[in-house]
TrEMBL record:
InterPro entries: DUF34/NIF3 (IPR002678), DUF34/NIF3_sf (IPR036069). It comes from Micromonospora pattaloongensis. A divalent metal cation 1 binds at H65, D103, H232, E236. GO terms for cellular component: cytoplasm. This is GTP cyclohydrolase 1 type 2 homolog.
């Protein structure tokens, strides 16, 4: 199996044409003629996950987030991303990215997130429009599904915290803790641009990442679905398991998944009532 063979298979499953115009997906670094025996799947290609790839002897890294999303004028080894590019090339490790084309795929990033919550009867939160290359067959951003049994918002938040990979960020929620939740919308990664879509979909709650103060506050005040805000990395990490299984089954490649938490937030201090708890307690980040 060569790099070119794996790239061709990934391009068929996640066609680059499905990606947003601003996105940068596909083969980033690597000689198409070189062999691939072992693959490491990661959310982010950063020095830590690159070191992990080298430690396990991976010939190819498949990442969700682009390494070179915006134009650069230099990849000198004195720059952060330049050093990564140099190390990839020197070690003959290829890098492939599937980002928004994997977000809209079916199955894709949000299907894996929905599965962690046990959602069923899934449909796209924001279906790909008819004139989009990804249109049809249940593709689009996010998913909306039904819980096996109704939960309160407090119970759903606790379930999400248990089901998602552990991070210092954890899961926070906005809304009445006793609100009954039956239909849940999810979107892996930054999802506050789909708040209106979650309302239109009839969701009782919406789980995503990177929610901002004012959009979230106004959304809840307007009576929209309750909100659950998880760490960006944690909402996309579940997809790596599905991706790795597909690579093993389809291409018979040895495929590993990185559990290195690449979320930038490494500490969480829980606010307490001074008269009861004293100083805020610092929670150690979990691996």
């Amino acid at each position: 199996m060569r790099v070119a063979d794996v790239v061709a298979a990934l391009d068929r499953r996640y066609p680059p044409a499905w990606a947003q115009q601003w996105d940068r997906v596909g083969l980033v670094v690597g000689d198409p003629a070189l062999p691939v025996r072992r693959v490491l799947c990661v959310v982010d290609c950063v020095p830590e996950t690159l070191a992990e790839a080298l430690d396990v002897g991976a010939d190819l890294i498949v990442a969700h987030h682009p390494l070179l999303l915006r134009g650069v004028s230099s990849v000198a080894a004195t720059t952060y991303k330049g050093r990564i590019v140099h190390d990839l090339i020197k070690r003959d490790v290829a890098l492939y990215v599937a980002h928004t084309n994997a977000d809209v795929a079916n199955p894709g990033v949000s299907d894996a997130l929905a599965a962690r919550l046990g959602l069923c009867d899934l449909r796209p939160l924001s279906p790909a429009p008819p004139d989009d290359p990804a249109a049809g067959q249940g593709r689009g951003i996010g998913r909306v599904g039904r819980l096996p049994e109704p939960l309160t918002l407090a119970e759903l938040t606790a379930r999400a915290a248990r089901a998602l990979p552990a991070t210092a960020w954890g899961v926070r929620a906005a809304g009445d803790p006793q609100r009954v939740i039956e239909t849940v919308a999810v979107s892996g990664g930054a999802g506050d641009s789909f708040l209106a879509a979650a309302t239109a979909a009839g969701a009782d709650a919406y789980l995503t990442a990177d929610l901002r103060h004012h959009p979230a506050s106004e959304h809840v005040a307007a009576g929209g679905p309750a909100l659950l805000d998880a760490a960006h990395w944690a909402t996309e990490r579940p997809w790596l398991d599905e991706l790795a299984e597909w690579l093993r089954d389809t291409l018979a490649l040895e495929t590993l998944v990185s559990d290195l938490d690449t979320d930038p937030w490494t500490l969480h201090a829980a606010s307490g009532t001074p008269a009861v708890t004293g100083a805020p307690t610092v929670k150690e980040p979990r691996p």
